[in-house]
Write a structure and sequence with these properties.
- 76% of the residues lie in helices and 1% in strands.
- It has 15 helices and 2 strands.
- The chain has helices at residues 2-10, 15-46, 53-60, 66-83, 90-98, 101-126, 136-156, 161-181, 186-214, 219-225, 230-244, 250-264, 270-274, 276-288, 304-333; strands at 227-228, 295-296.
- It has a two-stranded parallel sheet with strand order 1-2.
- Helix 7 packs antiparallel against helix 8 (161-181) and helix 11 runs parallel beside helix 15.
- The radius of gyration is 21 Å and the shape is globular.
- It starts with a helix and ends in a 7-residue tail after the last helix.
Length: 340
């Protein structure tokens, strides 16, 4: 997936996309290489014959040795690079900002859920071990929190609409790292991963619409042009709202589930993390609201067909996301998704 992802990123055929493709390939290969070494340590230290994850996870606590500890450190650190967690997040912004919108949507929606399924059992394994100082999972959640803070800081200092969307995706990766730290029930995890897949696809599709209409990615230049297609703008603003703070969005439901899970495990710092979503949304509204004052702009005739297809696809994803959020509200109300 790393090599194919790099090839897809390079299809934009620009200098920026080529640099982003190389960075994606090198950073992800570096992370997967370290993770592979860590997995070898874990399997060797657990003395289980065969690469059976369930058998290894059951036997790790029976082989609480230095080599197993080192293996989990290496593997978690390696996979965190693939997820885009601090300090290995530099590829995220370039990949999502400098590749084509559909490629960004594909990578952002499928890579984090796939990596999360690999990280999930490692967190569970780590919590069965006795650590003298600090555990890898604790460092992982600290790095995830740093990733969230960094994404908010970059949101404030960015005027590139593609970079803004990339930082929202980075924010979601950090939040996903915090969720993984608590090892939620599999039903909750699958719900959250499906949310990531749908929301990021919708976000980058709406970004592609805006980019095609404005012909530039620089906010001051868009404002200076004096016009924008209002329908496309409102779809993009609603996509941002759904991605961060909309009450019927599964992102909001995921925040509620994180709050329940954190408080049930005496992690009273979790509410502070949940404030990061509204803060990010406030920053984005501050940057994007001036676009609403621009005059309406007609869609270029040669772009009408592709814009119509993407517009309809984006609206369908929005409907699916709201239905998923409504389903989450129903399950929480009847106590079927969170068992405290």
């Amino acid at each position: 997936s790393t090599l194919s992802g790099a090839v897809l990123i390079s299809t934009a055929k620009t200098e920026r996309s080529m640099k982003a493709a190389w960075k994606f390939l090198l950073m992800n290969s570096y992370g997967l290489g370290i993770a592979f070494i860590g997995l070898l340590f874990i399997f060797y230290g657990s003395t289980v014959k065969g690469l059976n994850r369930e058998l290894v996870s059951q036997s790790v606590n029976e082989h609480d040795t230095l080599i197993v500890h080192v293996g989990i450190w290496f593997t978690l650190f390696g996979y965190s690079a693939k997820l885009g967690i601090f300090p290995n997040y530099s590829w995220v912004g370039d990949t999502y900002a400098d590749s084509q919108s559909l490629v960004s949507a594909l990578i952002a929606s499928f890579v984090p859920p796939a990596v999360s399924l690999a990280i999930y059992p490692l967190i569970q394994m780590d919590k069965t071990l006795q650590h003298k100082y600090i555990s890898p999972s604790t460092v992982f959640v600290i790095f995830s929190f740093i990733t969230i803070l960094y994404s908010i800081w970059k949101l404030y200092h960015t005027n590139d609409i593609r970079r803004l969307s990339a930082k929202i995706a980075l924010f979601h990766s950090g939040l996903l790292g915090v969720i993984l730290y608590f090892s939620p029930e599999m039903e909750i995890l699958y719900y959250i991963l499906l949310t990531v897949l749908l929301v990021k696809t919708m976000l980058f599709l709406s970004l592609g619409l805006l980019r095609m209409n404005t012909k530039t990615r620089d906010l001051p230049e868009i404002i200076k042009s004096g016009s924008i297609h209002k329908g496309i703008l409102y779809v993009f603003l609603f996509a941002v709202f759904i991605s961060l703070s909309f009450p019927l969005s599964p992102v909001f439901i995921s925040d509620i589930l994180l709050l329940f899970t954190g408080l049930a495990r005496n992690a009273y710092w979790v509410p502070f993390i949940l404030f990061s979503g509204p803060i990010s949304f406030a920053i984005l509204i501050y940057k994007l609201l001036p676009l609403c004052n621009l005059s309406d702009k007609a869609i270029n005739e040669k772009d009408k067909k592709i814009i119509k297809i993407r517009y309809i696809a984006t609206l369908h994803f929005m409907i699916l996301i709201i239905l998923l959020g409504t389903y989450g509200v129903y399950k929480i109300q009847f106590g079927e998704i969170f068992h405290g």
